[in-house]
Design a protein that fits this description.
The structure is a single chain. It is built from seven helices and nine strands, in the order E-E-E-E-E-H-H-H-H-E-E-E-E-H-H-H. Helix 3 (109-123) runs antiparallel to helix 4 (129-143). It has a five-stranded mixed barrel. The chain has a four-stranded mixed beta sheet with strand order 6-8-7-9, with helices on one face. It has 247 residues and is an alpha+beta fold. Strand 2 and strand 3 (30-36) form a beta hairpin.
């Protein structure tokens, strides 16, 4: 049985002498683990379309529940990322999170669109990497079921409180903390709060249609990163590597 599908390569793992196992994110079939025979041979026709972060069209042969790549063609290689180690490391962080969030046999068109939009933003639009990172982290947290409550202070109802509770995913005023709460709260400025609200609830096609200053981008990125890792209860080696390049 053959399956032809577009897909984004999230991971490439060496397998045996010349083969590799790929993790693909597809719109209709979700996450797929597929074998690429001979990928690591010199001059393999699969080399270009089977690189990490390559978006392409794949024809897969299924046998007994296992997929093998029969044919593959690249659609977008995001070459600009491959020429910049900082951008490439950020893209691989996106891929690592995407692999964790996605599921097999669960359609993932929105998640795939988010990943492609963020990679396009880094590569083609030359957007601020910190901004793209923040947008990705906030939006994928929502996709994973961790949409924060950004309507106002959880206690007094104030429209624009100045603290964000990472574990509860809600806003509070500085003076409204629960006596028994021990979760970490991060200060949030009004401009960053408005950006968070926009990212969470805007149309996916307009996800980068807002502007904030450099200082606000740094604040936003710190909040979104802390929120995502808190909710997922884990860190990411690719994120650690990306941050090491910024020192």
């Amino acid at each position: 049985m053959y399956l032809t599908t577009p897909g984004l390569v999230l991971r490439v793992t060496p397998y045996r002498d010349t083969d590799a196992m790929l993790t693909l994110l597809t719109p209709r079939n979700g996450k797929l683990t597929v074998k690429a025979r001979g990928l690591r041979r010199k001059n393999s026709p699969l080399t270009a379309p089977c690189q990490i972060l390559c978006y392409g069209e794949f024809t897969l042969f299924e046998s007994r529940g296992y997929y093998t790549i029969n044919e593959a063609h690249s659609v977008e290689l995001f070459q600009g990322l491959r020429r910049d180690l900082e951008l490439l490391s950020l893209g691989t962080y996106f891929a690592q999170v995407g692999e964790l969030i996605s599921q097999e046999d669960q359609p993932s068109p929105e998640l795939l669109s988010l990943l492609l939009n963020c990679l396009y933003g880094l590569d083609k639009l030359k957007l601020n990497p910190g901004l793209v990172k923040a947008v990705f982290e906030m939006r994928i947290a929502c996709h994973a079921g961790y949409t924060p409550d950004l309507s106002g202070c959880h206690h007094c109802g104030a429209a624009n409180p100045d603290r964000f509770d990472l574990s509860q995913g809600r806003l509070e005023c500085a003076s409204c903390r629960d006596p028994g709460s021990s979760g970490i709260r991060m200060p949030v400025s009004l401009g960053v709060l408005e950006a968070m609200r926009y990212i969470c609830f805007c149309d996916s096609k307009k996800i980068f249609s807002f502007q904030i200053g450099e200082g606000a981008i740094c604040e936003l990125s710190n909040i979104t990163e802390s929120y995502l890792t808190t909710q997922l209860e884990r860190g990411f080696s690719t994120l650690d590597f990306y941050k090491s390049l910024l020192v």
